[in-house]
Design brief:
The structure holds 2 protein chains of 2 kinds. By secondary structure, chain A is of the alpha/beta class. Chain A has helices at about 40-45, 50-70, 90-110, 115-125, 165-175, 185-195, 215-230, 240-265, 280-290, 300-305, 310-320, 335-340; strands at about 10-15, 20-25, 30-35, 80-85, 110-115, 135-140, 145-150, 155-160, 270, 295. In chain A, helix 8 (about 240-265) runs parallel beside helix 9 (about 280-290). The longest helix of chain A has 26 residues, at about 240-265. Chain A is globular. In chain B, about 35% of the residues lie in helices and about 25% in strands. The chains are: A alpha/beta, B alpha/beta. The complex binds zinc ion. Chain A: Belongs to the KAE1 / TsaD family.
């Protein structure tokens, strides 16, 4: 008989435009996972409007909490801890989750734990497959492009990051230039699959041995290409432009991830964040790591985009490691990942 | 009866506990910074001071704006979540009404207001009703000067209450003259104790549907609606 008491974590995520609540069992199993997306509301503005995101969060939060507990058939009383994204993200949006989490923790006398959003994206993978250390995580989303090395649970070394635009940001900007509606990333991915890489676009490798990224040059090159074609009265095939742009992004991401995986001799490579849903990127990475003994882990699409299950998974480890937040927990829009991993236990 | 009242909607952060016809604890600070950091520690401290546990609370009253968008949401997300999880009623009261309570006994019309920049204010007009509650005549986001001209035409005495009173004192007197009543300093910030007492008599809101009283659209949304309207007119 299984006498061990299970651990249940309630997690809240409101860092951008999804109001999400999840309940996670023993750090690895999803008991409930509810995401209220605001994408339809922000579509009309061509991007996320922070004040509108915050307004939606405060309208949705108790609905989503109720739905998650209903799905789990559990009560807050049965939780071991309340975890919440404390940053990075939009400050006004983060504040809704943080204050709701404090209210829950106080009302039921439960431990309160702040979680780093990117730690969450990485830990989304632990809901699918156990970690093997050392591991390398490629985090790609609308706000992030980072290579993170983990030698143990809860500790993060950023070995590469973007110097300008995040990959997802470049996707959205190029999509806008091509007249595609928001969010542009998935649409470029779809178009790229129908086109050919016929246009020569730059790859920003940066200095020898650097794992940093840069996508602003590529973005400008795409805009120039369109501009020049228009001036000459030529019609560019959108599919080909998308394919060429995507090829450049994917090649740099894949190659740098591969080099870093080799250098640090990792056992596992994890791909995380919204752009991990990109088919072109998934295929290229699978191709690259196929013949390697390194385990490549990419979560299912539903766990790539923002959700609270990932915050619960990362929160579970933080709980086990003894991290506890005080009642003065604040939203921290610029929270640093390495420092989060080194925060003092109290 | 154990009522917790919360107001983080403007510069004042206020918390009060009302137990069996008596205010047993009250906290006020007039420093707009970091309501999000300070709110929960202050609630915890106040509850401890009166030896009250969250599960003993019977109602939560919250000031729902207008005011600082972020401030209003800090109070509301705390109040809504706590009321929801404790399964107790929550009442949202306009922050203008909360401020107007300070002059409830004077018998005049009351005009509370908060500066909303560029000559605009969040304001309203309140009147004391038979039962002692306030009746909201109006609430809006308006150019203060236009609003004062409207009040002048009514030709009644009006009590003005605002944490931003000094900024507008001269303008009020210039337009309303002897009809303007401006109480002394202490009355221009909202009291959470009044919010708690008053909330006792107010009907509970539906927790999920309780939303901030912004009195103003987000700029992007206002522009979008305007564009829709223009497009519609052009199509007709
Ligand atoms: Zn994210």
């Amino acid at each position: 008989m299984d006498n061990k008491k299970h651990q249940y974590i309630l997690a809240i995520e409101t860092s951008c435009d999804e109001t999400a609540v999840a309940i996670i069992k023993d750090g690895k199993e999803i008991v409930a996972n509810v995401v209220a997306s605001q994408i339809e509301s922000h579509k009309r503005f061509g991007g996320v409007v922070p004040e509108i995101a915050s307004r939606h969060h405060v309208e949705e939060i108790t609905f989503v909490l109720e739905e998650a507990l209903k799905q789990a058939e559990m009560t807050v009383e049965e939780m071991d801890a309340i975890t919440v994204t404390e940053g990075p993200g939009l400050v006004g949006a983060l504040l809704i989750g943080v204050n709701a989490a404090k209210a829950l923790a106080f009302a039921h006398d439960k431990p309160l734990i702040g979680v780093h959003h990117i730690a969450g994206h990485i830990y989304a993978n632990r809901l699918v497959k156990e970690f093997s250390f050392p591991l390398l995580a490629l985090v790609v989303s609308g706000g992030h492009t980072e290579l993170i090395l983990m030698r143990e649970h809860g500790k993060f070394e950023v070995i590469g990051e973007t110097r300008d635009d995040a990959a997802g940001e470049a996707y959205d900007k190029v999509a806008r230039t091509l007249g595609l509606s928001y969010p542009g990333g998935p649409q470029i991915d779809k178009l790229a699959a129908q086109g050919n890489e016929t246009i020569d676009l730059p790859r920003a490798w940066l200095e020898e041995g650097s794992y940093d990224f840069s996508f602003s040059g590529l973005k400008s090159a795409v805009i120039n290409t369109i501009h020049n074609a228009t001036q000459r009265g030529e019609e560019l095939k959108k599919e080909d432009l998308a394919a060429s742009f995507q090829a450049s992004v994917v090649e740099v991401l894949t190659e740098k991830t591969y080099q870093a995986a080799k250098e640090f001799d990792v056992k596992q490579v994890i791909v995380a964040g919204g752009v991990a849903a990109n088919k072109g990127l998934r295929e290229k990475l699978q191709e690259k790591f196929m013949s390697e003994s390194i385990d490549l882990a990419i979560p299912p699409l539903s766990l790539c985009t923002d959700n609270a299950a990932m915050i619960g998974a990362a929160g579970s480890i933080a709980y086990d490691q003894g991290h506890r937040a005080g009642w003065d927990l604040n939203a921290n829009p610029g929270l640093d990942l390495e420092r989060y991993g080194e925060r003092d236990k109290n | 009866m154990n009522i917790l009242a919360i107001d983080t909607s403007n510069e004042t952060m206020g918390i009060a506990i009302y137990q069996d016809n008596k205010i047993t604890a009250e906290y006020i600070s007039n420093n707009k910074n970091k309501h999000s950091i300070r709110l929960m520690p202050a609630i915890v401290q106040l509850m401890r001071d009166v030896d009250l546990t969250p599960k003993e609370l019977t109602k939560i009253v919250v000031a729902k704006g207008p005011g600082s968008y972020t401030g209003v949401r800090i109070g509301l997300s705390t109040a809504k979540t706590m009321a929801w999880t404790l399964n107790i009623p929550v009442v949202g009261i306009s922050s203008l009404e909360t401020l107007a309570l300070q002059a409830r006994e004077l018998g005049y019309a009351i005009c509370p207001f908060f500066d909303a920049r560029r000559g605009l204010v969040y304001t309203g007009l309140f009147q004391r009703a038979e039962d002692g509650l306030l009746t909201t005549v109006e609430e809006k986001n308006v150019l203060f000067e236009d609003w004062l001209e409207q009040l002048k035409d009514v030709n009644h005495k009006v009590v003005f209450l605002s944490p931003d009173i000094d900024q507008y004192r001269d303008l009020i007197i210039e337009i309303l003259g002897d009809n303007a009543i401006i109480p002394e300093e202490i009355y221009h910030t909202a009291r959470p104790s009044l919010l708690a007492v008053y909330g006792r008599y107010k009907e509970a809101d539906n927790i999920h549907n309780l939303t901030p009283n912004y009195l103003r659209l987000v700029e992007a949304e206002a522009k979008w609606l305007e564009a829709q309207r223009t497009a519609k007119v052009e199509n007709e």
